User: Fold this.
Amino acid sequence: MVVERDRSNELYDLFSRMRQRQPQPATTTAVAPGLHSSSDVQTFNRFAKEFSTNIATVSEYIMRLTQLTNQQSVFDDQTAEVSELTQIVKTSLQRLHNDAGTLEELKRRAMTSQKNTAPTSTGHLRTAEKHSDTVVETLRSRLARTGQQFRTTLQHQSKSLKDKANRRHMFTTADRPQTFESALFQDQEQHQQQQQLLAGTGNIQYYQQRADAVMEIEAAVQEVGELFNDFTRLVQEQEEVVLRIDTDVGDAVRHVNAGSNELMRYLTNLSSNRGLILKVFAMLFFFLMFFGLIVVR
Assistant:
């Protein structure tokens, strides 16, 4: 006989220890070559670092929320803490969504300031711009994954609440035993009816609380869905920008190839003209030599 054992808590504890051991990734806070002097660039780097830290904090909240959702049972109600964490994560995601637009604006300011003030080469500017785009895209991807994780947790929480409510209903509304029509059991039946009436009142309050919690979770899922729609729109805009950049790069490559062909053609013409000039001078030289020999004789 196989005995099942829920070891989810051990897995989450292992993940927590591994997260504490691992250092913070440097991809979101590293400074690209040439990004040293401008205050706008420093502001962008500092804001990107804070943005990354906030995403990590929200991820920890979501992990804690998932643990509470898995630990809840009919006899261990942690609705208050779950609701508080849900509200915190929802507010944090909304703030991060707004900060994503601010991060994009800071990136544009940093690049404009870098082009206007820094005496760097074109290659360094392109490297800095590519680095900034990579930072923004990485942070947006992390934010989207965090939102998807929160949405999955909310859906699991809603399903768990409904299942627990059904189990509680099964435990508290079991069929009563048949009573005999006799005076001996009339008092007992009346007492059971009173107890069931009191239990029914408590169940109604419990179900009302469960229904309110489910409605809050569904509202949170809907808000997270709206955030995902905004994320999709932003990603689509970034894709259009990348396509335009790719098109411009392709046009530039074609222009470079055309210029190279024209230069080769001009070089060929110069080579052919040089040969013609040498031939003319050779003919003049032989003519002068021939004419000089005739005059001397």
The radius of gyration is 38 Å. Confidence is low (pLDDT under 50) at residues 24-37, 174-186.
